[in-house]
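FAQ: What does the model actually see?

It sees only this:
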Amino acid sequence: MLIRTLLLLSLAAVPACAQLLYGSLLGNVMDKSGAAVAGAEVTVTNEQTGAARTGSAADGHWQFPTLAPGSYTVAIRASGFREHRQTGIVVTGNSTARVNAVLEIGEITERVSVEAATIGLQTEGAEVRRTLDRATLTQAPIPLGRNYQMLLATLPGFSPPQHSGSFPANASRSLRYSVNGASDQVNNVRIDGASAYNLNIAQNTAINPTLESIETVDVVTGSSDAEQGLAGGAAINLQIKSGGNEIHGAAFWYHNNQHLSAYPYFSNRGEAKPKFISNQPGGAIGGPVLKNRIFYFVSYERTGENSNATRFLDVPTVAMRRGDLSGSPTLIYDPASGAAFDPARPMLYAADRTPFPNRQIPQSRFSAASRRMLERPEWAPSNFPGSGALGINLNYLASVPYWTKRDQVDSKVNYNLTPKWTAFHRLSYLWFDQFNPPSFGIMGGDNVHPTNTRPGFGFGPTYSATVSTTYVASPSLVFDGFFGYTLQDVNAGPYGSDQNFSRDVIGIPGTNGTDSFSGGMSRIIIDGFTQLGYRQVSPNNFTDHQYQFAGNGNWTRGRHNVRFGFETLRFELNQAVSNPPGGTGGPAGGFNIRSDTTTLRGGPAANDFNAFGSFLLGLAREAGRSVLTVPRLEVRSQAFSGYVRDRWQVSPRVSLSYGLRWEYYPFPVRSNRGMERYDFDTNQVLVCGTGSIPRNCGNSQSKRLFAPRMGIAWRVSDTLVVRTGYGITFDPFNIGRELRGEYPVQYALTLAFPDTRAWSTTFDVGLPPVPGAPQGERIPMPLDAALLTADSNYRRGYIQSWNFTVEKQLGQWVASAGYVATRSVRQSAYLPVNYALPGTGNQGRLLFQKFRRNANTTILGHLGTPKYDSLQMR
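And it is asked to produce this:
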């Protein structure tokens, strides 16, 4: 449980909870004695569009739910009293604004006009929330990129937002963050209602609207209303601007270059600053198509960077490339030496190894593939004085040309179809291109650009859309609903993926392949040096869809406001991506070169010279390759939910909100059958949905996930509010994405090694062929394949949150002090079941003992599962 005390002084705090897409207005009507004025007529009018609704304050209390965001005028009329008119009342999505009126005695034709204050208290709900309004978004200084998420660091409970993922997988450059100690993968961002999950990187969003297009950002971080679901950390609701009866527009151009900036951290200060040019032009316009009836808004923004990215790396020196390892403070032992060495079984460890004379490895002993790699000009020797005890750390300054561009349009059209029926549709569109060469060209290597982790090329569109409508059946009954859709269509690959470079040029047998994404350089990790090749998740080609539908009703009766509704969400992953669960290599193959291979048990500790000696000999301790046995990974996940909530105005100063939410997450399936599940008793993989095996793999998910929510707000005075609330939210983690590459749709070959000073293969021997997909409903699990499977008893976790908050208005300031608690229960986790607890040896390994499996066996379960040895947080 995380408990933190929050003390916040802010310029603006916005009132409390209502509908996600819409807001509410409510208030009390009194005379000067404080008595309720019954039967007053109340009219609320949207100042931008002219849309109006009229109701009655039967017992002195009135409320209008499901109002479109905007600025409103409230007019209150009662016989024997002057008309009370208040203008400039701002209503935002997922918020409630309170307007209390004291009527003055007089003729109804007389009027008392009041301009709304620019600040208010959160008077109705008890959730922990803040709103970033248009003024904050446009006036606050935001770093290069103009991403609204950078402002989240100013809100209580947020960790500093950070860059995450490569440009192709995260073209909107959304940021990752955790809230109140919850996982960064349980946040949810909605754009005009539509969830903007990034199905490939759960901690990011698929698309971020441009800053100029955002009206408000509503942020709820605890004790949320029953309507709010699919979020255990932060529930963030973005409203795109709408047009009105007047035309408004803006234009901008943001520019930066190397002459306006300091030297990059990774750069040679003795030379000119590396090239860096950033441009971000754009504009927006909104207005009427038909006055009081149809309105439009559209914004455009282009973001581009053209630079020479630089980074310090670790490469072998000229002497090391000749086999001269005399710089090592310890001996370099010959793995193929000693009386106990058996040439027929060369991978077995010989305890009586002898060192290479003078720490020199003869070039006649070099692996042929190692020699070819050393001859490549792209993998150049050190060009900068090294650091560290051995002098080979950060001894190479890489410089590569880099460019990205992103074009984005956000648009919205609103309709006042009739006095009772309104609607809108929104469309956001993003297209990106990138060219991000790796540090060693065709030889691969790490990314050079500091915020783009995937070297190579990439391009593709992202779409996000909402269609929403509201119908006022009567002053006391309002219905609303929306359909949301998001598409990410990404095409990305490594530099040089159009040729089988490792197999045909470097000469490592068994690498690369026949499909379109297994080309390029194999991933080669040498302890202490910058890797060659590419990360195992390259390339990344996917077409992911999200479909969402929600319907809601709002019924007011007296002092009760009852809201109810349902929501369905469907995820469709269609990905040609090889991301092995614990495997060593990607589709082009992979080799891990370790320093222990050229050491002696009981001898001095290994160093980087030992590792490079292992490379020259071509000895890989771990090796493997992952291959898709189907054209692409296709996974379908769904979520269903329903809720009912009552907000009860117990008295003019006390509001009570209580509700219940229900959620159901069926076990994910593939497009044509169920998923797969490993049977620990038989060492078989069950192909679900075939033969006698149920489509849900026998892993039935609970249909009794009920989440209570409640809160109370006490308006002690017009400037002091006390609130407290409690809520449960179920973890929305999409397990379908994690299980997408299970065997047999992906074969993650991982070669075993008998000892940490031995090797599994050599460059010259390479990798064995990866077999095709076996058929059947029960498939024996190969012992050389990595495994990720779902716990047969997987139960979805949940997050509890509660708070106690006191809020005081001090002139144009609001001081808020709160106690906030968050507790995660059964948080999803990867459980590596073949690693033993300290001191237990192999007896502590579940599968190693039974099937002599390799160590790459992982279960998707949850923290607190007692039957597994060790845990790794996701």
